[in-house]
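Structure in, sequence out. Go:
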């Protein structure tokens, strides 16, 4: 059974982390569907076309936000989803499927992800926690989205050019073609059984992902060791999508905050945390 992403106190840690900036995306997809994130609400269309869709996330809040699509099957509604989360905050019902979307960016930043969407009913949520550790979706960052069949749209796996491919397994990342400086499209494929995400983190000089993760512990102190710069939110087994990033030279990390239902451990603690340098 899929389990909610686990990201305790991330807002507290990162809200004041905007000390260095990432170059803005150029030549971004021109037919993207834009969702604006604020503290704490989404603004965006109530419908999207099925098939290949690029979702652009414009964060106009102060907190970091991401955009996680959840497909609601068995006729379930956004209301059912909220009720299920209230009953069991750390378990996602089997009728709710992780369908990806652009992962977290800081305030005043924009990111985008391209997906192949099935027609159906979805909710768009932000699971990033507030200062009390409560996910933003509980304070308003949940929006129903209906995906409508559109014969004109391409279906099936994307044949868009990708500069690199990240495969998620239970529980590690397999990166084919390292990420490099400049703008690039990264394909993300979940070959694991559990849902996985890719949070791309720009680490401060001298900082490691271990430092970044340490800031997720209660009572962590000190300066924030890095900042999220996009990636792909959770996707179910054998689902895929791609995202656009523009990297400056530096030290980066790739991390998954989903929980393993068997052990209760976050995926990063089981191996889904990897660091790399961009020259
Ligand atoms: Cu994972």
């Amino acid at each position: 059974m899929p389990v909610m992403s686990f990201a305790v106190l991330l807002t507290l840690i990162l809200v004041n982390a905007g000390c260095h900036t990432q170059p803005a995306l150029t030549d971004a997809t021109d037919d993207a569907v834009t969702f604006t994130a604020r503290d704490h609400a989404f603004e965006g269309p109530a419908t999207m076309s099925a098939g290949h869709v690029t979702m652009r996330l414009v964060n106009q809040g102060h907190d970091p936000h991401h955009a996680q699509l959840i497909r609601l099957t068995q006729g379930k509604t956004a209301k059912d989803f909220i009720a299920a989360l209230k009953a069991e905050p750390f378990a996602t019902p089997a009728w709710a499927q992780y369908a990806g979307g652009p992962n977290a960016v800081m305030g005043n930043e924009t990111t985008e992800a391209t997906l192949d969407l099935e027609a159906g009913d979805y909710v768009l949520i932000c699971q990033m926690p507030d200062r009390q550790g409560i996910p933003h979706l509980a304070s308003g960052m949940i929006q129903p989205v209906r995906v409508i069949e559109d014969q004109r749209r391409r279906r099936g796996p994307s044949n868009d050019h990708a500069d690199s491919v990240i495969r998620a397994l239970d529980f590690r990342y397999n990166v084919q073609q390292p990420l490099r400086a400049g703008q690039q499209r990264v394909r993300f494929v979940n070959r694991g059984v559990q849902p996985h995400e890719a949070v791309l983190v720009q680490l401060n000089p001298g900082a490691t992902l271990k430092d970044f993760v340490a800031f997720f512990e209660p009572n962590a102190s000190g300066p924030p060791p890095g900042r999220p710069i996009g990636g792909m939110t959770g996707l179910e087994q054998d689902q895929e999508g791609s995202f656009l990033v523009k990297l400056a030279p530096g030290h980066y990390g790739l991390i998954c905050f989903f929980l393993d239902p068997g052990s209760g451990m976050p995926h990063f603690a089981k191996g889904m945390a990897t660091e790399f340098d961009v020259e």
